[in-house]
Inverse folding.
């Protein structure tokens, strides 16, 4: 699923899967968010911070958010509920949410 | 009554991806059929298709698709499309440029959109397989709007911000001719000033092979022999894909903005066989009624028609039925008849609008398509005037036929500008 992303994103994904490395998780989440930013709101060199708001700053609409959620579901093989989606507004919250989801998935698998 | 002018065409077809290429293929008899191998299975008997060139859409992910660089398409446009939606978007862009209209003008409320496709069996299969694999726990949020019948109108209406009449037609191989006929009525009744009519289909295993299960497809391995409408050796149709867009406008609106006019849609008619879910009536009675209704609607006698663009797909029963119907309407000294599916294959829902657009090109450029793949005419079709080569003059009045499952028959009358 990440074959269209820069190579280091795929490498970060592998690190994340094997070690749960937080920096790797941030690299993957940021890359996926960048990829889903609506075209009209894309600015060259845009830097995502933990407080970057998906809707207010990046212009995500409901389709873009649902598309982003499904991408993560498919990438990490997890299911995300509507309630969980509504709790996430910022990039930082998204990183924390993905981290929690992966930890829960590892626990279930273990 | 308000007249309906053809002002813009766009083509992604097996015989060319723009008007110039399509025109050359029709004039010179260049085939769009090619060898294919579906599902990496060399044992399959279906080995020829009307392929879409310069596009790579084998993946269910739009991120993997490749298409000509001339089209600048944003991810927001691509993410909810099926492969045939991509073709359609490209065809509409061409038609807009051809009609010298801007995309913004389609959002004026006086413009509507009618589309025809069977949806994407390919994407539907992918999404449902994924859904089953996770026991229904998640699925692509864009799966429905990209895959079901209607995907063309959903996506194109949203992309171009169309606020007029929008709808889709599902009458199998008659669908886009239904769309065109109803678009004509929207304009003639004064409900819309302009209609965008689009037909599109995919040519992949999921769309094509179910027709092999019906024994409806040619099993010829030679692309030159596989699609031979009206020929004694025909053994089924050859599936094809692509998209065609036709923009039609009320005559006064078109003339006021100085549009170039290919020709006029003079009338249309439809009638069903009331006979069988798949097979046509052997006597062609439904198609006879459709043709007569179209001619009556256009206010012309059969003798005024000098070219019939046949639906003839190269199936034994279908071509025979249509030949009987044409001879019933026009008698023994009828007009020139040809089926361009010998060159293109049969793109299902899209065939009617594609062939109506071919007729428009012939009107504008001064030629009448022939039957270059016809070698040995079926004696049952012998009463038809079936020239092999393209004729170097335009017809004045054309009747374009389409037929679909359930015995739906539609005919459209197209006249010179």
């Amino acid at each position: 699923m990440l074959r269209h992303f820069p190579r280091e994103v795929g490498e970060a994904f592998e690190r994340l899967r094997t070690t749960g490395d937080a920096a790797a998780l941030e690299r993957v989440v940021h890359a996926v968010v960048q990829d889903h930013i609506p075209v009209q709101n894309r600015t060259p060199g845009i830097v995502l911070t933990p407080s970057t708001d998906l809707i207010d700053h990046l212009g995500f609409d409901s389709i873009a958010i649902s598309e982003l959620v499904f991408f993560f579901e498919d990438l990490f093989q997890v299911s995300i509920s509507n309630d969980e989606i509504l709790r996430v507004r910022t990039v930082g919250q998204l990183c924390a949410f993905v981290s929690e989801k992966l930890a829960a998935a590892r626990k279930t698998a273990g | 009554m308000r007249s309906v002018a053809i002002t813009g065409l766009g083509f992604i077809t097996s015989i060319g991806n723009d008007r110039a290429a399509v025109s050359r293929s029709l004039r010179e008899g260049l085939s769009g059929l090619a060898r294919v191998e579906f599902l990496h299975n060399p044992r399959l008997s279906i080995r020829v298709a009307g392929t879409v060139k310069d596009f790579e859409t084998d993946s269910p992910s739009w991120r993997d698709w490749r298409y000509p660089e001339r089209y600048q398409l944003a991810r927001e446009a691509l993410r909810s499309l099926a492969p045939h939606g991509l073709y359609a978007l490209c065809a509409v862009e061409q038609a807009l440029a051809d009609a010298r209209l801007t995309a913004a003008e389609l959002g004026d409320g006086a413009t509507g959109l009618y589309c025809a496709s069977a949806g994407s069996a390919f994407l539907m299969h992918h999404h449902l397989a994924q859904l089953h694999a996770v026991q229904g726990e998640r699925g692509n949020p864009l799966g429905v709007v990209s895959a079901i019948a209607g995907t063309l109108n959903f996506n194109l209406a949203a992309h171009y911000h169309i606020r007029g009449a929008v709808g889709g037609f599902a009458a199998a191989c008659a669908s886009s001719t239904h769309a065109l006929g109803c678009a004509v009525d929207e304009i003639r009744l004064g409900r819309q000033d302009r209609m965008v009519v689009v037909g599109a289909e995919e040519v992949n295993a999921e769309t094509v092979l179910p027709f092999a299960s019906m024994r409806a497809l040619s099993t010829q391995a030679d692309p030159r022999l596989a699609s031979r409408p009206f020929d004694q050796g025909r053994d089924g149709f050859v599936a094809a894909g692509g998209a065609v867009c036709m923009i039609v406008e009320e005559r006064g609106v078109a003339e006021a903005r100085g549009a170039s006019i290919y020709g006029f849609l003079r009338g249309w008619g439809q009638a069903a066989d009331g006979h069988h879910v798949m097979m046509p009536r052997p006597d062609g009675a439904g198609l006879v009624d459709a043709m007569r209704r179209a001619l009556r609607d256009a206010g012309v006698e059969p003798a005024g028609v000098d070219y019939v663009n046949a639906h003839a797909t190269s199936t034994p029963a279908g071509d025979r039925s249509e030949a009987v119907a044409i001879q019933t309407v026009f008698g023994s000294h009828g007009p020139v008849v040809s089926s361009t599916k010998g060159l293109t294959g049969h793109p299902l829902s899209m065939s009617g609008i594609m062939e109506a657009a071919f007729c428009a090109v012939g009107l504008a450029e001064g030629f009448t398509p022939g039957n270059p793949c016809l070698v040995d005419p079926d004696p049952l079709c012998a009463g038809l005037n079936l020239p092999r080569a393209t004729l170097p003059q335009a017809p004045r009045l054309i009747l374009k036929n389409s037929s679909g499952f359930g015995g739906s028959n539609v005919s459209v009358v197209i006249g010179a500008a």
Q: What stands out?
A: Chain A has one domain: 7-109. Residues 53 and 94 of chain A are 10 Å apart (CA to CA). DSSP finds five helices and no strands in chain A. Residues 91-109 of chain A form the longest helix (19 residues).
